[in-house]
Every structure is written in structure tokens, then in C-alpha cells.
Design goal:
8-stranded parallel sheet; 3-stranded antiparallel sheet
Amino acid sequence: MSASGAAQPPLEVNVEGFAFPDNRVDAPVKGLLQAHDHLWSYKGFGEGPFCGKTFDQEGIAAALADCDTHPLALTAWFESLMEGEEPAPPRGWPTFDDWPGHEWPTHSQSYYKGVERLWRSGVRVFVDHMVSNRALCEVYPLRQSTCDEMASVRAQIAESRAFEAFLDVEYGEGQGWYRIVGSPAEAREVIAQGKMAVVLGVEISEPFGCSMLNSAPQCAEETIDQGLAELHDLGVRSMFLCHKFDNALCGVRFDEGLTGVAVNAGNALTTGEFWHAETCQGPYQDNTALGFDELAQAPHCNRRGLTGLGVHTIYAMMERGMIVELDHMSVKAADHALSILEAESYAGAISSHNWMDGALSPRLLQLGGLVTGISRESNQFLDYWRAARAAAPDPDTFAFGYGLDANGLNSGLPRAGQSAEINYPFRSFDGNALIDRQIWGERTWDFNEDGLVHEGLVPDWLEALRLDAGSDGPQFVADMSRGAEAYLRMWEAATER
């Protein structure tokens, strides 16, 4: 039954047993780390461009119903922008003929039964980022709410709390498996109860309204202090200082290719200026961006680094024991941020989804921070894991995780022969759960055919990674199985200093 009492159409998780069942408060956590995801994006971006929801009181038939396709492809605006053509009408429950699909990043990739599947398969710490972007919201004509990014963050946190309460109707008060935590100690208690500890994060382009217009900051230190206090009260424990566009806190790491051209246009829309590129002079570099060949020779670096307000923000986050997200900072900003963290011996920092120059990873790992990889084809993800492992100060205690970045305009992965064939059913990394093909209505999902097109297929993707790792498979499993514990130790080091 749905929380409203209406009959809910059947949906199968298709996991027998429970991975990592024997965690205790007084012992290291065993389980996986999901370091970067966006379950509530449909409450961001003006509540317009996304199709589908993570949950609905009336069940999957309402959450993943067929979506209308506007004649100008406005309901699939990002795909149309990138591909130059209108996608087919997105058909959802009960056939799922067209979506979720790897090529449609604005169509929901995270129905909650898929999230339940990865929890049952071993994820014990899940970082859930509130995300939005004012520029992308303002250019979308069918939005239904404000483009103010902080208002969007509040709405998404409210949705996360509503979902937590929704599960408590089914499991009993305080017993649902999605539990928002405010401290590492609380996370350990939740995990010992067999639940998933959820850490709230924020990834927006203008935290606290700290935009920049014609190089002039549009906020002050008092605004930042008030904003951080509010976010902390709302339960947020992890935050990006900048994302996609330069702002009053820091310059950003460029996007590549045609995506970079579109994002650079958004930078001009929000700041009054295009990115300022220069030829990198040091050991670190940003992504090479199109359109700068006559201005700066590659490798390209953003001239903008960490501002005085950005420095203030990092110190204010450290005072609150919050986790500093280094991804999306320009290398000049990330280098400066790391120097501050190193001087303060502050371990609470992470590169959660491959948006930091890998040359900075040894410093971050030596500090006690974490590096995790975004969902990619097997060879790319495994290469990133091996590189991070090689940079670790102690390979015997090295841990790794993944950042799915679902519903963050990150496309899924087509099968396309990029990974090993999975033999269904397969075992979880610890062997305690038996995982079969997930069934949604009339659709049976098979990673061998579908690839990683929605959240519920993460366990299948991880099994393919284990197989593709070959002789390194046992080491890969061991490193991933330490991910949740490594995150908690990093967080503890930040809050106990």
C-alpha cells in the first residue's frame, strides 16, 4: 500500500538476503560508499525540466508516469540542446519502453525502489546532494517555481525529509532504511541497525546567493555565515563552493567540448563575463575548453582561483566540521583550498566524482581526505581506482567509493560491450545477498543489455567492474567494501579536531 492508502503497483527489488548484515557501533563499518547523487533534482531548476520523481505518495504509477513531450522539445531541453533533435516521447510505467535511458539525463534515474536495491546490496553511506542552477532554470520557459538556488535547496531538503517520513509509514516510526544523519556517531548507530546513513550535501552555482557580476561579488561574509548556519541547521554537512559557473567564492574547472561551450554561455549570463582562460604554468590543469585557442594555448587553466570570500567560507565550514567538496573548483582554487586544509590538518575534504585534477589526489589522500570515482565504463572507472590507489599513502588501508551523479545531468552508461557479461543471479561483494534482475512493471532490467540506466542497476554495474578487474578483482572488492568506514573516519577527523 502507498502511504495514502491507495494500492501501489507491484515492483520487485529482486535481492534475497542482505549485504554486510553484521555491522556494530564499536567496530569498523563494512559496506559501500555512494559519495555523490541527486535524488531530489526534480525540486530544483525551477521544477520544470525533469521528468519523473524519486517517490510519490501514490506509488510508481504516479512517480514514473508517461511524460508529455512539448512540440519544441522543452520537456527534454538538455537532450535537445546537446543532440540537436527532439527525443521520442518518454514512456514510463508500466512498460518503460523509452526511459529510464542512458541518453536522457533529464528523465529521472532514481526511483526509490532502485535505491532500496543498492542499500540491500551493500551501500551503507549515501551522500545526497541538493542541486540546482539559476542560469539553466532561467532559460527554461516551463518552470513552475523560483530559480533562486537556496530556495531550491530548502525545497529539496524538505522532500528528503518527506521521503524519510514516507518510509516510516511502511516500516514504523524511525525504522525506515533511509536515515538522514547529522554526525558520524549517528551514522554508525544507523548502520549498526541495518539502515543506510544519508549525508545531506549541497552542489549549487551560487551558495547563499554569492554570485559575481562583472567581477564584483554579490554577497558579504555575514551572508555566508548566516547561510552556513541555516544549512547546518537543516542537516547539511557537505558543500561545494562553486559549480559550473564562476562565483564570488571561486573559479570553476571548465567543461570540455560542446557542453563547455553551453556552460560558458551560462557563465556569461550569470556573471556578465565568459571564462577567463590562460595557459597552465604549474603541475595542475583544468579541462581544455573550446573557443580559447586564440587567447590561450592548451592546457587551459581558469585565471580565477579562491577568493577572499571563498577562504572565509572554508574556515567557516571547518569551524562547523563540514566536508569541503573540491570537485568543480578550478585547479588554482583547489590548490589554494588544499593549502589551507593542509595548514590546518583538516581531513574533511573529498573529490567525489572525478571533477578534480587527479594530480591533486596524492595531497588530498595524504591529508586524510577521500577520492571516489564517477560512474563510467569499466576501463575508465578501474583506471581511476588504480590511480587513486597508487597515490594513497597506505595501500593496505586504502578505500574507494563511487559517485553516481544520477539526476545531475550525468548520462547513464550504455552496455555497448564495454564490460563483462554478468551471470544472474550474482552475489553481493560480501556474499550475503543474492541479486537477480530487477523487475519494474512489464520491464525486466538486464545490465548485459541495458547498461547502467537507473540507480537500481548500480549493484549490477559493480559486479561487472569486479569481473573486469580480473586478477585485481579481490582487491577492488576489498577497497570498495571499506568505503563507508573511510568516509566516517574522514568525517570524524573533521568534527573531532
